[in-house]
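WARN retry 2 of 3 for item q-0093 after timeout on previous attempt; input resubmitted unchanged.
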Amino acid sequence: MSILVLVGAFGVGKSTAGDALCEKYGAHYLKSYTSRSTRSDEPDNGAMIYDVPRQELQLMNERGEMEWVDEYVGHLYGTKKQDIKTACESRECYIMILVPTVLLRLDNVVREYCGRVEYIFFDPISDTELGRRMDERGLPREEIEARLKKINWYKEESEKTGLEFTHIKNDGTPEELIREIADSTRRGFGDEVLLYHEPLNRLLD
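OK item q-0093 returned
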């Protein structure tokens, strides 16, 4: 029925928010596929299928299985058409973490399947704090520098889409962050979407 898309630079809290929405409040990840290897600090939360060979992802795309395959910071990422269709036909709420360059493709296909989608943009915190978070996660210095250069790119590319975003800044407690996202979901989708998510309803009561 609904897809909640989290957009923003690395380290702004997208995965933290997505994990909490799934673990505590009944949402589900709509999984994507990537050629990137998993990092040691990443939990197996179902959001991503890692270590898919580049050639295999490209073949899946050529066979028409993928809605998109896009390259970001040297790695391929993609999402299957059937997975998006299944999410749109479900009564559940699904979470996706995406780069801005695929958002219009998602928006078009969701409209085709009569689902609904809400976009949450995580406004950046300071470069120093983002760099610290990436360093804590064990990213190589060259990858940290590459990702820091992408901070403004996220905002610029998101604005180019013309889509409507709810802007959030992860500068409070995790509970405050989740409540803000849940409140945005209610505003974007309407109360009826949350009928299937009693924990979220209780959070907003």
